[in-house]
Amino acid sequence: MDVINEIFATNKVLYQCACGHCKPLTHIYFCRYCLKMRCKDCVYHEVDSQYCQHCLEYIPTIDAKLKKNKCASCFQCPNCMHTLTPRTFLASVPSETDPNGMTTRKAQFLLCSYCKWSSKDVGIPDQFIGSGGWPEIEAPNRKRVEGLVDHYRVIAQRERMEKEKKRINPRPGHAIHLLDKYGISASLSAKLTESLRTKAYSGRISSNYLSASKSLTDIKLEPSLATDDVEPLDVDTFYNKDLIESEISSIEQRLMQVEMQPNTVSQFYPISKMLYVKRSLRCKECDHNIIKPEYNSSSIKFKIQLSAFYDIPEVKIASTPKLIPHKESMVELTFKNPYQYGMHVCLQPLKDEEMDESITGKIILPKAEFILECKDDTLEPELDSTQKTRYNDDPQLITFRRGNKIGLRLTVIPEIDSGRCRVCFRLRHDFVNSVVQNKSTGGSEPQVSWISHKIYVDLGPVIESKESIA
Ligand SMILES: [Zn+2]
Ligand SMILES: [Zn+2]
Ligand SMILES: [Zn+2]
Ligand SMILES: [Zn+2]
User: CATH fold of 313-469, please?
Assistant: First the structure.
């Protein structure tokens, strides 16, 4: 268990995102267009497509809105949340041609294979195949909720329009947001949406949809009114009857069906599975996509995936030293280049204004620059013994070199008497951009830029001396 914890405990080395948040490398994206780190807190989240995670059916946005983000054919058990399976059997029904005879038809009921709850338990009639899905029960407050949703939609729209008016230079792509909002973009093909997106930049479409939305402002909402009538307490049920626990639903079961909230087991009804979304992420600064999944709901691949662990060197702690307060100790850090090009790396101390109170140790960094080889899956690093001599590595500093990975021995001095020792430095490296071409050479060569990242390393607790405890 400890080994597993060690692998997934990625909070020891944190990278600072452009927005200031510190995250592990696996939670960070790297925008190759503005050459900055991005995290989920500083990018636009956009819903790309909706799908049912059980039957993997792709559902267009407009349909998903009409179906209240629920799948029409998949249900989960109201008792244990497990997925319900439809069971088919032959039922005998009165024949349509012969008034006295009987005929057989294929019918279905829903059964939970885990807790054995079935739609028969609560008296839901079996569905004949081809009769068009399970009936939906109407929520008691449906009309009121719909009225409120419409009302707030109008308010949100008004606010948005006012904001747009104030903005001198509206953000490009605004029209496509309006198209998304009314579910129009999803009913169009991906190609058409894309061309609309480009047209939207010229602002030709946005005005049409703004005027169309004005008609919605006519919606009137009835205010809520308090009444003097309070339902009398059902004394007979609550005080005079024995409580049978198996007949009463639990809080979890009630909240699973928040619109119905069944008090008793007999009121259970199959719950429609909620749809899942595929999100794409967009850089707030340059509007480029950072993450874009494939449309196909069964695919787990991405069209665009600019995760930082593909581009930025990974720093790990190889061996945790014994940290004695105010004394020098040696720590071994490893640096790994995940990128297709080699990198020149140097470590820099923080400037005084960059220091913060979370840094509790000092790290002595080498002045020399070192080279990280590119990632090469075909290379067998163990066999390549010429590497160490090729780069003329200082054995005092570099402990090992294997392919795209090297180990560095660094000195740290904890500046606290108790608690965790946290050091921070800047990792500066060159980056060969395969996406953005170099403009000065006419676009024939990739652009090379130097970038740096602020990295926090948590080395663990210091050994408390006996005097400080006393
Ligand atoms: Zn961020
Ligand atoms: Zn489904
Ligand atoms: Zn169940
Ligand atoms: Zn960007």
Answer: Immunoglobulin-like (2.60.40)
